[in-house]
Design brief:
Elements lengths: L1 H19 L19 E6 L5 H11 L4 E5 L4 H4 L2 H10 L4 E5 L7 H11 L4 E6 L2 H7 L8 E5 L4 H9 L8 H18 L2 H11 L12 H21 L3 H15 L8 H8 L3 H13 L3 E4 L14 E4 L2 H7 L6 H13 L5 E2 L6 E3 L3 E6 L14 E5 L9 E3 L8
Parallel strand pairs: 1-4, 1-5, 2-3, 3-4, 10-11, 11-12
Antiparallel strand pairs: 6-7, 8-9, 9-10
Length: 401
């Protein structure tokens, strides 16, 4: 036990440094959506979305005796988390912030036992390997409050860039009152210029560290997801991982991609089922968005109707030339709407929201001929500051969260 206590002191000191560190005033949208009173909170999200910062921001506000532990520390190669928590609990710590939990082999088993064995303790947990955590959280389904942290919305990007808060709007508010919302924002900002910046590099908060190196780091993170998160978890071969990278490159240079599975299988030198499984895994890993006619009860063996990169920044990172503008528009819209709404493919139009609203995506001169006779139909138009009637600026759909 003395050996553990000596090793533990380094973790305690590291936690104190974390709690005393200077953090940004800007808070991600999820901060106010989390019910922090829950005893076990699981925060899932892609690498680089700001999970660690969010946890530290709450930790600095807490009046409890807390500790922050990163479970990728080599300490946990020797000592089980349960053993460490038992010792720290005796010293009065009641709130445990556990980061990089997917790096710890026994995370779901230990958390289940800790939750049941320490009813006065709270555990706030985060991890980046969404696939591994989705599998493990089944053991915690009746215990954990699970949240997903997405990348920055366009609204959050503006808040981070300009150091001021901008309002959120509901989908119904945007559809009904978009002119009233857009005019004061466009009077205040060069909104279209900021929108271009967002599409290029604004989805992950780490863009602020270096805009010049942003796309390079995005590629590095993607490689980590494929090679470290996905490959060992699914026992993927090198050939399959290479096919995934090739697929991402193909999508980055495409118009909105309607998959021909047979041709794609031939191009990737893979079977039909391997291609479909690849789509499914990349969607779970937050690298792709798959558009279907339905969102529930869908097997991965059912072909998606359209395939998009998960966010517009990925297109700039992968493509060897300027990405297709139509693809960027639809990727942005799908990416922002899927956070809070069910997005499916309608019989007419580009997207259906909540099985109620039909949206057509286009440029400034996009007309509404294709939507004639369709109830609750709207146009989301790029390259316009304000709209009129059922024609709404595309950028405004970035103010939903």
């Amino acid at each position: 036990m003395l050996y553990i206590e000596n090793k533990m002191e380094r973790l305690v000191q590291n936690s104190k440094r974390k709690k005393g560190a200077k953090l940004p005033d800007f808070r991600r949208y999820l901060y106010d959506r989390i019910d922090w009173s829950q005893r076990l909170i699981l925060i899932l999200g892609h690498r680089g979305t700001g999970k660690t910062t969010l946890m530290l921001q709450y930790m600095q506000q807490s009046q409890e005796k807390t500790i922050f532990l990163s479970l990728d520390d080599y300490f946990f190669e020797e000592v089980r988390l349960i053993t460490l928590v038992e010792q720290l609990y005796k010293e009065g710590i009641r709130t445990f912030f556990l980061d990089e939990v997917h790096r710890y082999q026994f995370w779901s088993t230990d958390l289940k036992q800790l939750f049941d064995g320490y009813p006065e303790a709270n555990f706030i947990v985060s991890g980046s390997s969404v696939l591994a955590l989705e599998k493990g959280k089944a053991d915690l389904s009746r215990r954990a409050a699970v949240y997903h942290l997405e990348g920055l919305s366009f609204r959050e990007f503006l808040s981070l860039e300009l150091g001021q808060n901008f309002p959120k709007f509901t989908l119904e508010e945007i559809l009904a009152q978009h002119v009233a919302f857009a005019e004061p924002l466009t009077d205040q900002l060069d909104i279209l210029s900021y929108f271009e910046q967002y599409l290029t590099y604004g989805y992950y908060p780490f863009y602020r560290e270096s805009k010049n190196l942003y796309h390079q780091r995005l590629l590095e993170i993607t490689n980590l997801v494929l090679e470290i998160d996905l490959a060992p978890m699914e026992e993927l071969s090198y050939k399959t991982v290479r096919s995934m990278k090739k697929l991402l490159f193909i999508l980055s240079e495409s118009v909105p991609f309607i998959p021909n599975i047979s041709k794609l299988a031939e191009r990737l030198e893979a079977s039909r089922n391997t291609v479909l499984r690849t789509f499914d895994l990349l969607e779970q890993a937050k690298l792709l968005l798959l558009l279907r006619y339905e969102t529930h009860g869908v097997s991965f063996l059912q072909k998606p109707e359209k395939v998009y990169l998960q966010n517009p920044n990925l297109a700039y990172a992968f493509a060897s030339q300027t990405p297709n503008r139509g693809n960027l528009r639809e990727t942005f819209f799908f990416n922002q709407l899927q956070v809070l709404h069910a997005v499916t493919l309608p019989k007419q139009g580009d997207f259906m929201l909540n099985q109620t609203y039909v949206l057509e995506i286009g440029g400034a001169h996009k007309g509404g001929q294709q939507l004639i006779g369709i109830p609750n139909a709207f146009i989301a138009a790029d390259d316009i500051k304000t709209g009129s009637g059922t024609k709404i600026p595309l950028w405004l759909f970035g103010f939903l969260y």
